[in-house]
Amino acid sequence: MTLAKRAVLSLAALVAVIAVAAANDSSARFDLIRVMSGGNADEVERRYVELLVQRLNELTSATIISQRGSAAPGTDRLEMNGPELTIHLGTRESYPDLALLADRLGVAMPDEFDPGREGFVLASQATGASLTVLAIGTDRRGVLYAVGEILRRAEGRGAALEFPTGLQLRQAPRWPVRGLIVVQGHTMRDLTGAREWTLDEWKRAHLDYALGGANTFDIPPGDAWKPIYDLVRQYGLRAHAIINGNAGHGPAEWQAKESIGRTGYLSPAIPEARAALLKSRAATFGSMPPYDSVHIKSGDGGGDESEAAAPYGRAFIHLCEDYAGLLHAHHPSTQVYVGNQKLDNAGDRAILEYLQTQDAEWCAGICYGPGSNAMGWTPGRRQDHRIDLFDYARRGALSGYLRYLLHQLPPDQEILLFTDLTHWVYSQYGLMDHEIIADRDYRTPPPWDDGMYHYRPSEAMAMVYDRRTFHARPRNYYQVFQETTEFTIGDVAYSEGHHDHANNWIYQRLFWNPHQSVEAVVHEYARTHFGSEAADLMTAAIFTLEENLQTPIAENDGIDRLVELVESAGRVMPAERRRRSYLWHEYQEKACLDKYIQLDVRRQRALVDSVSTQLAAALEGGDLAATLSALAETSLPAPSDEMDALKARAVAAGDESERIFGLRSEGLFNLVQDYVGFGWLQHEIVRAVMAENERNRRAFVERILHYDDPGHDGFYDNAGVPGEAPHLVYGWSYGDGEFNSSNRRSQRTMAFTTDEERGVAFRYTDLDPDAEYRVRLTLVRPRFLPRYAKFQPQTRQSIYADDFLLAENLELPEYRADSFEFDVPRAATADGELRLWMKKQAGVGEGLPSDVSIWRNTGGWGTLVSEVWLMKKPDVAAAAE
C-alpha cells in the first residue's frame, strides 16, 4: 500500500500498535552507579567510558563512580556490598574478566559471527537489590554502541537511575557504512537569525548519532573542520569526504557548462583546465589527513554539459582515476567512490564500460545520490532515462536501477548511497510540489510505477515552510530504506541542517535492524529523546506530523491532534527533561505554527465566501456599484486572538529551542500569505469598480462568481492539473520559476512545452458547425531567480486555431496572470472540430545541445498555458429575439 493511500491511524489504534512493539522489561532504581572498565582499555575505549559517565550524569543526580577493573584472570566482580548498579564495559581484550563474568551470568561472549562486527552483548542480572550489567563489544567500536544502548534503556529519576533488570541483547549492524553529514544548517540560520553552534554543540550532535549507531561522518577537508575530524578519530569512527569533481577557478574559456549554469567549475575536456584541477586536488590531498573514504561528485553542483566533454561520464571517470593516483600517493588505503549524479545514460555507460574493462583497483565503487536514478523523475533533473529497465521492473524505480548497477559492477566494487534525507519537498524522495516533468526525450514514467510522484505536500505548508524545515517522514523513508539499501554497503546521507534529525536517526537504527517495524523504530526514537512517559504520545505525534505534511490543511483534524499530542507529551515528561529538550520545543513550535496556518486558511476562505455572497446578492437586485466600492477596500483578515496566542506559543518554543541548541523554525518569519488567491479577487473587484458601464460591471462580477463556467455548450480546461484538462492533447505540467501567490490556484499551474516545434495543444470535437466560438486563455510566465534568468530569453508565443493565427508573438505577463480573448474564425470550427495550439518564439530552445540542456534545466519553456475556455457565442438572431 502506498503512503498516499494509507489511512490515517486513529490515536487509539496507533498507540495499541506501539504498545505491542514496545513492551518494556521490568526495571529497578539505583542511587549508586559504578562503571567498570578494563585495565587494558586504550585511549579510545576510555573515551567511551567517559562519554557514558557524562551522559548518565545528565540523566540523574545519583552517585556515579568510574573505575578501572582488574585484568587478573579469575577475579570475581559479582560480589557487592549494597544496592547498586554496576556496569562492566569493554571487550574480551580490554577487560579479560568479562569472560568470567559472562560465564557466571550464562551469557555467550560476542564474536564476529554472533552478533557480528561492531556489535555487542548487553545483559543485566539482579543479585538481591543490586544489578550487574555486562556491556561487551565484539570489537572496540562495539563498546561505543553498547554505551548507546545503555543510554537508550536508562531513565533518569531525579537522584536515581532506572534500568531494566532482565536484558539479554545481542546486536550488531547489518551494513558496514552507516553515515551522514552533521551540520547546523547555514540556510536555516540565515532565515531565522539563530545563533551558531558552539564547538561543544557540534561535537554533541556528532556523538548523538554515533550513539545511535552511525560509524561514518562526512567531514570536509580543511582547517575549519579539523576539530570535528579530530573528534571522529578520537572516538574510533570513520571519516568520509566529498570532493567535487570539477570545482575550480580559471579563465572564462576554461569554464564548464554546468547543468544549471553555475560558475566555478572547470571543463576537464580543456587540457589547461584539467591540469588546473589536478594541481588543485594534489594540494588538497597532500594537506588533508587520512580519510577512510572519499566520494568524488559528478554533479549537483558540477559536471560539464559541453560537447567537448560529452559524455561527461567518460571525462569524469578518467579524471577520477588521476585524482585517485594523487590521493593514494599520500593515503593509499583511502577508498574512492565515484558519483553518477545528474549524468545521462551515455555518461553512465561510459563509467560502467571503464570499470568493466580497466584494472580499476583504485575505485571502490559507485556513489548513488539525487539524480543518479535512471529510472526516476524526482527533482535532480536526470537528462534521460533507461526506459528499457521498466520491462519486468519488479518493485519498480526505487530499486530497479540500483539492482542494474550492482549487476554491472565488477565483483570487488560496491554501491554507496548518498541519500537526501534533508528536504521535505523538491528532492530525491521528497513530496512532489509539481507534476512530473518530461525528460529531454519527452518521456515520463509508466503510470503503473508513478506512485512516488503522487506524494504531494499540503499546499499551504509548502507556501510557508522552506525545503529544509523541521519535519519527520518515517513511513516514507522506511519504504525508501527497504527498497534501496539492499543493493548497497550503506549510506553517507546528505543533510543541510539539524531539522531532519528524526529521518537521520531512524536511518541509523534501521541499518542495525532492518526487520523492525516502522512503528517500533519510531517508538525507540521517541523513548530515547522524550522519555518513556511521553514515548507513546510522541510516537503518535511524529506519525501525525508526517500525515499532516501531505494532507490539505483546511479540514485536517490532524492539525489539532498534533497540538494535543505534543502538549500532552510535555505534561507527562519530567519537568527537567522537558526544559532541556530542544526537540520537544521544536515539535511544539511546529504544531502551533501548523495550527496558525490552518486558522489563517479558514479565515481567508470564509472571507472569499462572504465576498462572493455579497456580490451574488448585489447582482440579483442590490446596489452593485455600492457593493463593489465597499468591497474594493476589503483586505485579508488580521490574525485572530487565537492565532496571536498560537504565534506567541510558537515564538516562545522557538526561543527555547534556539537557546538550548541554536534551532528555530523559519516558518515564524513567513506567515503572511495569500492562500486563496484573494489578490486576484481584489484585482477583479477593482476592475469592476472602474468599468465603463453597468453591463461591463456585471460581466466582471459574473466572471468572479462563475469563474470556470464556459457557458452553454462551452468547454473549460485547467491546463496545469492532470485530470482537469480533458481537451489537452500535448503539453507537460510546469514545475519551475516563481509566480505571484495572489494568482488563483488554477493560474499558478500550467501546461508547457520546451524545445518542441509542437507547442501546447488542445483538441475539441463535436462542435456546432453553425456556431461561432470565442476562446479565453489565462497566461502567465514565471519570474526567474537572477542566476537562471540569464538563460531564459523567451517572453512570447503565438496562438493558432487550426492554421489560423489568433495572436502573433503575444507577450505573456510576468509573475501575475492575466486573461486574453480571441474570436475563433468560423472556418476553423466548420467541420465540428478545432485544434487550438501554441507556437514558441523564434530561436527559443535552439542552439548547441549543451546550451539547450542548461536552458531546460533552469526552467526553460517554449509555450505556456494555464487555463482555456472555449465559449460558444450566442446566436445573434436568437439574442435579438
Walk me through this protein's architecture.
With 881 residues, this protein is α/β, with parallel strands linked by helices. It contains 27 helices and 29 strands. The two termini are 60 Å apart. Mean pLDDT is 94; it is low at 1-24, 71-80 and 877-881.
Low-confidence segments, given as residue ranges, are 1-24, 71-80, 877-881
Instruction: Please state the overall shape, judged from the principal axes of the Cα atoms.
Output: globular
The overall pLDDT average reads: 94
User: What is the percent of helical residues?
Assistant: 25-40%
Annotate the secondary structure layout.
Blueprint: H1 11-21, E1 27-30, E2 32-37, H2 43-59, E3 63-68, E4 85-91, H3 97-105, E5 120-127, E6 130-137, H4 140-153, E7 155-157, E8 160-164, E9 168-171, E10 177-180, H5 186-192, H6 199-211, E11 216-218, H7 226-234, E12 238-244, H8 271-287, E13 293-297, H9 312-330, E14 335-339, H10 345-357, E15 363-368, H11 397-408, E16 414-417, H12 459-464, H13 474-484, E17 490-493, H14 501-510, H15 518-530, H16 532-549, H17 558-572, H18 575-580, H19 582-620, H20 624-631, H21 641-661, H22 678-689, H23 694-705, E18 715-718, E19 728-730, E20 732-733, E21 751-753, E22 761-764, E23 773-779, H24 786-789, E24 796-801, E25 804-811, E26 818-824, H25 826-829, E27 834-840, H26 849-857, E28 863-865, E29 867-872, H27 876-880
Parallel strand pairs: 2-3, 2-4, 4-6, 10-11, 10-17, 11-12, 12-13, 13-14, 14-15, 15-16
Antiparallel strand pairs: 1-8, 5-6, 5-9, 7-8, 18-29, 19-22, 20-21, 21-28, 22-27, 23-26, 23-29, 24-25, 24-27
Helix pairs in contact: 1-16, 2-4, 6-7, 8-9, 9-10, 13-14, 15-16, 16-17, 17-19, 19-20, 19-21, 19-23, 20-22, 22-23
